[in-house]
Structures are given as C-alpha cells and as structure tokens.
Amino acid sequence: MAEVTDEAILDISGLSKVYKGGVRALDNVDLTIRKGEIFALLGPNGAGKTTLIGAVCGLVRPTSGKVTAFGEDLAHNWREARGRIGLVPQELSTDMFETVHRAVSYSRGLFGFPPDKARIEEVLRSLTLWDKRDSQIRELSGGMKRRVLIAKALAHEPDLLFLDEPTAGVDVELRKDMWKQIAALRERGTTIILTTHYIEEAEEMADRVGVIRKGQILMVDDKDAMMQRMGRTEAVIALSEPLRELPPSIATFPVELRADGMELCYRGGDGSGKGREDVAALTKALIISGIDYRGIDIHDSSLEDIFVGLVSETEEA
C-alpha cells in the first residue's frame, strides 16, 4: 500500500462561496489533504460538498479564501495545477453520441497531454470498458456510463482525484468493482477525495473523514480516532420478569429500564471495546443479583451512527 505522508497535496484556507441572493454554500472552510490518503467528505444534501470540489477544480469561483494544490496558488497558477487533478462529477456530463474510446482519449488531450494509446487501453481495461470501446455512450447502462466518467478522469494520470458520489445509481456488483479500482489507484499513490451517500464505504476505505454541514466543516479526524472517541455500545437485555427498580449493583452501570421493566438498555463505552467489556460485567452482575434474562441485542456505533448523531446535534444547537 502506498504510504500516506504528512506532506500537504491540497491546502484550503478560509474558503467561502456566497451566491446571488445571499445563499452561503461555503463558510470559511479550512481543510488540508495529505499526499497519498483517501479522504471521505460526508454531509447531507446541500451541505456544500459539490461546491467545495467545484472550487478546487475551477468550476466554481470562490467569493473569498485561498486554494493551494501541489504548492501552487490556484488563483494564479490554475492551469499548471489543474492538469494534475482529476474529477469524476456526480452528474453525467459527456457527449452521449461519442464512442467510449474517443471520449476518454479526448479528455487526455483536453489537459494538454499527448496521445497515448497504451494508457487509454490500460484505463479502459481496468474499468472493464475495453469491449465497449467502440460503443456510443448512450448505448451503455447507467453503471457503465459512470465507469466512463472515471475513465475520463484517469486518462491524464492525475495525482489528485475527486470522486463526487462515484457509485450513485450503480448496482452492488459494479459498486464493489469500482471500489477495487479505487483501492488500486491508492496503491499507485493517487490521493483521493470522495463524497458518498454510502457511509459504510467511507468507513471501510477512508484514512480520514470530514463532516460538512451548511458550508461549514464540523469535524476532520482520522477515521479510527473518530470511531474510538465518538463510538458507543448499545445493548438491550430482554428480562425474563419485569423489574420495578434497579438494584444498587446494577444502577452503577449506564443503564435504564424500558418496556414496563422488561428491558434493560445499556449505552456507554467508546470505540475501543470498553462498552462490550461493560456489558459482559453487567450480565454477570445480573446473574449475581438473581435477575434472569432471555437474550441480549448488542450494537457498536458505525461511522453512519456517528455522522447522523453529529449532524443532528448541530441542527438542534
């Protein structure tokens, strides 16, 4: 696996975007992306994810702030840096009557790179598009069209790749295949920034996670550190007989009675496994206290649980 370094490949400072009418899509965003990492940007619809990507890729003109990529200020040296950046947009934006091979080849030339038949063939084969190279894009399935977008973005061998909802509208089999391709890109040292609605994919693939809401970055952290700091364990213990009140030995745990005393609910711990250790100790205390139970349903927080909780908290604040 390619090594993630502390070197900043992208540095965003004080980035804001205010549209006509006063809509603030980005609000003083600060974000640094490390060379070689996979960074997942999570947020609800309208949070500013696509606007942020557009600002870096030259599709959106920021109202204020600074974007530096590969040490170049994009406001002054955009062309030099843009050739090293690839973008797979959320919306399909290509000529439907073009053939796959021509569309991907054209994308390479668009960034000033000379024709390279071997590179185009490599990209198409890696995305299982080689057999479709002479097909018009309009003839392809939704999932295959999405692959063409990825192929167009990879044609000029970018060092930094943006994937804006890359698996939206793709069936499960194609989605898994695409993630294999993304893992292979990471192996070659490509830095990847992705947005996704499939949070379990970010949980599996990302090194770091950022959460954005209403144009503001709420949190950026290493995925494992975030899971440990904000993760929780929840266990619901179904009792054999209703319990009117908690015995002193049980009340020391973070538990509450529910369902007319027929359920004991535990919420506590962190993402390090402490919660499950507490649940094991709790069940022993129940047995010692003579309290019988019929079953336990235990659940550890996923990244999605943390994300939903974090966004909900800020909405209520």
From TrEMBL:
InterPro entries according to UniProt: AAA+_ATPase, ABC_transporter-like_ATP-bd, ABC_transporter-like_CS, ABC_transporter_ATP-binding, P-loop_NTPase
Residue ranges occupied by any ABC transporter domain in the UniProt entry: 10-239
Regions that span the bilayer: none
GO MF annotation list: ATP binding
Keywords: ATP-binding, Nucleotide-binding, Transport
Protein name: ABC transporter ATP-binding protein
Protein's organism: Erythrobacter rubeus
